[in-house]
Specification:
single chain; 14-stranded antiparallel barrel; 51% strand
Length: 338
């Protein structure tokens, strides 16, 4: 059984190396706005800046955990240089570490977006992100099926796998558009589309004679809303759809903020999401003033639950928003808040 399990894990790593697959992602995609769409950069009504961090760990009970983490931040600038518009600038650092072979992806990105009010109730945004990404793997830590000598995996037997590199780096360009509609003080709607890997960089550890090294472009769309019910609840329905190559990801659900203090300074956050054909995702959080903590648990509901005992992933998100002491923004977007 141990041999079979190790072969399965090794095959999984090998397929991960070859396939374009899905990119780094979080279940709490709405708490990683720069990752979802570059046009989100600097789109944070009522605040001058925000910084955040995300951490996700999964498959811990199958083998070496698959860990994903990011830190990011953005701010509004030049609000007095444009008529009813502003620039947003930001940056993020992302890291993935997967499997026994220490397969890792590390990326550093800078992003910029322009936001323009259209009339009194609409906002149109466009932006792009440019980053440098490096993929690494420690091939010496991997075992393959042809290294099984009948009793154990013998690392002195050549694997005959077509590795050409143990590290590869590339530039990555992403673009996006957003539209927001502020219907009233109690209703807000937002939707966006983005395209990642516009330049289709080469990102494989294998030679071009073995596999097409270029990343597939990734197409992402999202829509969300905020609806205030009296002064007690703000409901936030969300949907997120992403396609990369033949892989699709759809996440939909709702989270709700409960006003605990009457003035909105303390809020309880509860939510429930579903990733299509994969996981049910309950979420719980707490917000005090401008600091928000949220955690979620991905309960596998697909056939993979037989392998991981339904324990798909745990995720933590922290977001801090703020206003600069010398801020004098002339642009005030109507927002749904307590």
């Amino acid at each position: 059984m141990n041999r079979i399990k190790r072969i399965i894990i090794s095959c999984f790593v090998f397929l991960t190396l070859q396939a374009s697959g899905q990119d780094l992602h979080f279940s709490q995609y709405f708490n990683a706005p720069l990752l979802v769409n570059p046009a989100n950069t600097g789109f944070n009504p009522d605040y001058s800046y925000r910084v955040g961090g995300n951490y996700r760990t999964q498959w811990a009970n199958v083998g070496t955990p698959y860990n994903t983490m990011s830190i990011w931040g953005d701010t509004r600038v030049l609000e007095d240089r444009f008529e009813n518009g502003w620039l947003g600038i930001g940056g993020s650092i992302l890291k993935d570490v997967a499997g026994a072979g220490s397969l890792s992806k590390t990326g550093a990105y800078g992003s910029i977006a322009y936001h323009q009010m259209v009339g009194y109730n609409s906002l149109l945004s466009g932006g792009f992100t440019l980053g440098y990404v490096q993929n690494k793997i420690d091939i010496s830590k991997l075992n393959f099926d042809n290294q099984w000598n009948g009793k154990f995996f013998d690392i002195t037997i050549p694997s005959n796998e077509p590795f050409a590199y143990s590290a590869v780096g590339y530039l990555d360009l992403n673009i996006g558009l957003n539209y927001a509609y502020f219907a009233s003080d109690n209703v807000y709607m937002n939707a966006g589309i983005s395209l990642s890997h516009v330049n289709r960089p080469e990102a494989s550890f294998f030679s071009t004679s073995v596999v097409d090294n270029r990343l597939n472009r990734r197409y992402t769309a999202f829509a969300n809303a905020s609806v205030k019910i009296q002064n007690l609840w703000i409901l936030n329905p969300n949907i997120y759809v992403s396609k990369m190559g033949a892989s699709w990801e759809t996440v939909l659900g709702v989270n709700a903020n409960r006003n605990l203090s009457g003035d909105g300074e303390q809020q309880l956050i509860v939510g429930l999401y579903y990733r299509n054909h994969d996981a049910l995702i309950p979420m719980l959080g707490y917000q005090v003033n401008d600091l928000k903590f949220t955690v979620n648990y991905d309960a596998t509901v697909s056939s993979l639950g037989n392998l991981n005992g339904t324990r798909g992933a745990y995720e933590l998100s922290i977001v801090k928003s703020g206003v600069f002491s010398n801020s004098s923004s002339a642009i005030k977007c109507p927002t749904v808040k307590f």
